[in-house]
Amino acid sequence: MCLAIPGKILSREEKDGQLASGKVDFGGVVKEVCLAYVPDAKVGDYVIVHVGFALNTLDEESAKETFEYLRQLGELPDPS
Questions:
Q1: What CATH number should be reported for the domain holding residue 42?
Q2: Which of 6, 41, 74, 80 is the most exposed place for a label (fewest CB within 10 A)?
């Protein structure tokens, strides 16, 4: 079973000869993520991330719904 978590792209960086990467916010936890598989994703978009690789984009409503489920499980801090 694999687990992919939604996150919001905060920054995007593409250097010559390197894969695109960026900072992604997972409901308050920010990590560096490879964005090579979502070349059209931009800052502000939500992506699904598995083991450090963004695999697909998704809408904000779906991402926030997942964040709420994770908060209910105690896996994410309360945003207040």
A1: 2.30.30.140
A2: 80
Q: What is the pLDDT of residue 8?
A: 96
**CB of 30 within 8 A of CB of 8?**
no
On whether residue 80 sits in a domain, the answer given is: no
Angstrom CA distances, 45 to 41, 48, 61, 74, stand at 6, 10, 12, 25
**DSSP string computed for 6-66:** EEEE---B--TTS--EEEEESSS-EEEEE-TT-TT--TT-EEEEETTEEEEEE-HHHHHHH
In a domain, 47, yes or no: yes
Task: Report how far residue 75's alpha carbon sits from residue 80's, in angstroms, rounded to the nearest whole number.
Answer: 15
Give 22-77 pLDDT, tens digit per residue.
999 988 889 999 999 999 999 999 999 999 999 999 999 998 898 888 888 887 77
Q: How many domains does the chain have?
A: 1
